[in-house]
């Protein structure tokens, strides 16, 4: 799924991207587009193009995360091609799998462990701002 690999994190999270040239919202998985000036009937409800694109991604592909997991994109490639890692990730501290994240030398492995730690802390109920020390 080449199209999926080219998407940034924000598009994957939202379940759509916006194509300014076509004036359309686009599924980040398959590239199906939804004209921004149209209203779409989805499951008996009328939706804007933005919401229709997000709903399409969820219904057709199980959501952007499920599609990413099924795509076969190696975990390391996902991190290497991420367009904008949060600069505050360096403020995440603590241990993951018995190793302190701030002491990991390999930048790719450190970024992977930052995400692990972030997910662990969010699961414990900590707010994102506290984890990233904003």
Describe the protein's architecture and organization.
The chain is an alpha+beta fold and 134 residues long. Strands 1-2-3 form a three-stranded antiparallel β-sheet. The chain has a two-stranded antiparallel sheet with strand order 4-5. A hairpin with a 6-residue loop joins strand 2 and strand 3. It is elongated and about 50 Å long. The mean pLDDT is 82.
The largest sheet, given as strand count, sense and whether it forms a barrel, is: 3 strands, antiparallel
Task: Give a count of the beta strands, DSSP E runs of length 2 or more.
Answer: 7
Report the helical percentage: 40-55%
The strand line-up of the biggest sheet is 1-2-3
Tell me the overall shape.
elongated
Question: Ends: how far apart?
Answer: 36 Å
How many helical stretches? 7
Instruction: Give the strand content.
Output: 15-25%
Low-confidence stretches: none
Helix/strand structural class: alpha+beta
Radius of gyration using CA atoms only: 18 Å
Query: What's the average pLDDT?
Result: 82
The succession of helices and strands, N to C, reads: HHEEEEEHHHEEHH
In short:
The chain is an alpha+beta fold and 134 residues long.
Features:
7 helices, two-stranded antiparallel ribbon, single chain, alpha+beta, 3-stranded antiparallel beta sheet, 134 residues
Topology, please?
Blueprint: H1 2-5, H2 9-14, E1 17-19, E2 24-26, E3 33-35, E4 39-42, E5 45-48, H3 49-61, H4 64-70, H5 75-80, E6 95-96, E7 99-100, H6 107-123, H7 128-131
Antiparallel strand pairs: 1-2, 2-3, 4-5, 6-7
